[in-house]
Amino acid sequence: MTRFRVAIARHRLSSGVVSNWTRNCVTKRLISAGGQHAGPVRDSWQNRHMARRPGIFGPASSWPAQDLIAFSAEFDEALVVAAYTEGVFPMPLHSSGFAQMGWWSPMQRGVLLLDGVRVTRSLRKSARHYTTTVDTAFTDVLDRCADPSRPYGWIDADVRRVYTSLHATGYVHSVETWDAEGRLVGGLYGVSLGGLFAGESMFHDPDHGRDASKVALLALVELLADEHAEERVIDVQWRTDHLASLGVIEVERYEYLSLLAETLAVPAPAWPQREEPDA
After folding, report:
1. What is the 3-state secondary structure of the chain?
2. Are 153 and 143 in contact (CB under 8 A)?
3. Along the chain (279 residues), what's the average pLDDT of each consecutive run of 10 residues?
4. Is the dihedral of CA 260, 266, 219, 274 positive or negative?
């Protein structure tokens, strides 16, 4: 059991969302492990051709006790990847009247463990009506997530530019949901670093895509469910009622940050090979 799972287990034990059998097993493991990770530390994810800039936001102990920890005029691919390795993600501050990028690290972080996904009978039934793909329509997914008619939209031209570039270099991935008519009716995209998938946004077509974004999430979980499944974490930034219904829980910021390095050290999942465009 990784330290991240130990931390989540503590949350589940205290909130009463696990069975008695699981509670007993986890309690025994916490006692035997002393609350620490007992397994070997894996090689760093940094062999993925982009070096981390350490401490770009300063020590976490100096961050304000709020979700927004910094803002900057600078915004590029290297900064975004470095931010994720420090438990921080970007989101523009346009709605607040600032023409700068906001950098966020929620006090209560929404996370999903692969074995914590809740799949209702109705969701299983809906999933039968769709097919899913990976990285075949990233631009379309990004466009739909950035639809200006959606409330609280935040995906601007800078976000599009940087995340499109990161998709081209293999850091960002999308999952698409299609209906029987071949329409894109749902999807999601996010950043993949080691054992972390940091979800950025998801959407569904209100007319043709009931549960389509949820089906995309199930497809993502299936893709990540390899031999390292127990060590992988899906970060959803904030827990909403919608995400909570799928099994997302909250962890304290300090806990998330203290366990992040171990998650990043997990080998990356086997994302499908992309087809090269015709010359």
Report:
1. CCHHHHHHHHHHHHHCCCCHHHHHHHHHHHHHHCCCCCCCCCCCHHHCCCCCCCCCCCCHHHCCCCCEEEEECCCCHHHHHHHHHCCCEEEECHHHCCCCEEEECCCEEEEEEHHHCCCCHHHHHHHCCCEEEECCCHHHHHHHHCCCCCCCCCCCHHHHHHHHHHHHCCCEEEEEEECCCCCEEEEEEEEEECCEEEEEEEEECCCCCCCHHHHHHHHHHHHHCCCCHHHCEEEEECCCHHHHCCCCEEEEHHHHHHHHHHHHCCCCCCCCCCCCCCC
2. no
3. 49 39 29 30 29 70 95 93 96 76 96 90 88 96 88 84 97 96 95 97 86 93 95 94 90 95 95 67
4. positive
Q: 101 and 158 in contact (C-beta within 8 Å)?
A: yes
The Cα–Cα gap between 154 and 80 comes to 16
The structure tokens 């993502």 sit at 220
Q: Which residues contact 72 (CB under 8 A, 6 or more apart)?
A: 79, 100, 101, 103
- The structure tokens listed for 271 are 């994302």
Q: What are phi and psi of 75, to 5 degrees?
A: -160, 110
pTM value is: 0.79
- C-alpha pair distances (Å), 236 with each of 25, 68, 255, 260, 273: 27, 16, 15, 14, 25
Q: In what order do the strands lie in the sheet with 233-237?
A: 131-134, 172-178, 184-193, 196-204, 233-237, 108-113, 249-252
Closest CA relative to residue 84, chosen from 227, 268, 263: 263
Alpha-carbon distances, residue 175 vs 142, 189, 203, 278 (angstroms) = 11, 6, 11, 23
Pick from 102, 47, 50, 31: nearest CA to 71? 102
